[in-house]
Amino acid sequence: MSTPDLNLLIALDVLLTEGNVARAARRLRLSPSAMSRALARLRETTGDPLLVRAGRGLVPTPRALELREKVSQLVQDTEAVLRPAETPDLRQLVRTFTLRTSDGFVENFGPDLIARVGVEAPGVRLRFVQKLENKDSTLLRDGTVDLETGVVGNTLGPEVRVQALFRDRFIGVVRTGHALSQGDITPACYAAGRHIYVTRRGRDKGPMDDALGVLGLEREIVTIVGSFSTALALARGSDLIASVPERHTGNLRAGMHSFPLPVPVPEITVSLLWHPRLQADPAHRWLRSLVLDTCATMR
To answer: What DSSP designation does 276 have?
Structure first.
């Protein structure tokens, strides 16, 4: 059985509405002869004359009357499917979005983001999952994760969309009353302290160590942890020194002493990542804009 030409549904809908070949042709911007050919094909496909002449006009057959409402609804449904998605009513939206982020991002930006979601779309729930060592784009690709934040790495899939959220610089952080909380901090003073190193990749040295090495200095790394929040918790209760991103840890450093690193360390760019299959989704687009605005506001 051959596949029917679904364009004929549109022609049939207009013909049954107008009851006139010439008027139907004008509505569809076709010539009268093209419209007549469409009617001939419809008659052949349905096995019914559909419209028959009565005086100077055309009247529908019983089969045409039977089809009229059904065809009209099919055309409306098809147009709705092909129409660009409308902006959802956020007050009525019920949906759970999964965001893969670091602990620091949740602790610093999460409260404000959750509050704004609650005001604009009370039926929306945010589910935060921890960013582990694996940074590939599989979870974005298979739909497990809707949005991700972080520094773009080499394992990112080429199709993933990326938008910068903010740039961040590393700073040093110590407890209030620490020896480094007073006076100027030289590279030698910084290196002489006892340090916490943050990594999820199993490394034991980072950009700070490279910068110190250029000056012939080496710092003592006492412990290695997997998150900046853990590093700050340890520094808060000891004489250890944490080196963390400034904006990423703003709320977590409350009551502690922060200082610029005495050696040049490259800044990082924290980005928002998502899969292109969600690019045009109105609700997803709204959430992306909310994350961007939240990060821009909290400077």
So the answer is: G
C-alpha span between 208 and 170 (Å, rounded): 9
| Percent of the residues in the chain that have a pLDDT greater than 70, as a whole number | 92
Which ranges of the chain does DSSP label H, i.e. alpha helix? 7-18, 21-27, 32-46, 62-82, 103-120, 138-141, 187-192, 207-214, 228-236, 282-297
What values do phi and psi take at 37, rounded to 5?
-65, -40
Q: What is the DSSP string of 153-193?
A: -TTS-TT-EEEEEEEE-EEEEE-TT-GGGSS---HHHHHHS
Could you tell me the sign of the dihedral formed by the alpha carbons of 106, 110, 114, 120, in that order?
negative
Domains within the chain, CATH numbers bracketed: 7-82 (1.10.10.10), 95-159+281-297 (3.40.190.10), 170-266 (3.40.190.10)
Lowest mean pLDDT among 16-25, 116-125, 164-173, 174-183: 16-25
Contacts for 60-66 with beta carbons within 8 Å, 24 or more apart? 60/16, 60/19, 64/16
pLDDT at residue 33 above 80? yes
Token pair for 192: 């002489």
Pick the residue with more confidence: 200 or 258? 258
Handedness of CA 145, 146, 152, 158 (dihedral sign): positive
Q: What is the DSSP letter of 226?
A: S
pLDDT tens string 227-269? 888 999 999 999 999 999 998 888 889 999 999 999 999 999 9
Predicted TM-score of the model (pTM)? 0.68
The CA–CA distances, whole Å, from 167 to 48, 102, 151, 238 equal 69, 16, 10, 29
Mean local confidence (pLDDT), 2-30: 85
277: DSSP letter? G
Q: Which residues contact 215 (CB under 8 A, 6 or more apart)?
A: 187, 263
Q: Which amino acid is at 253?
A: R
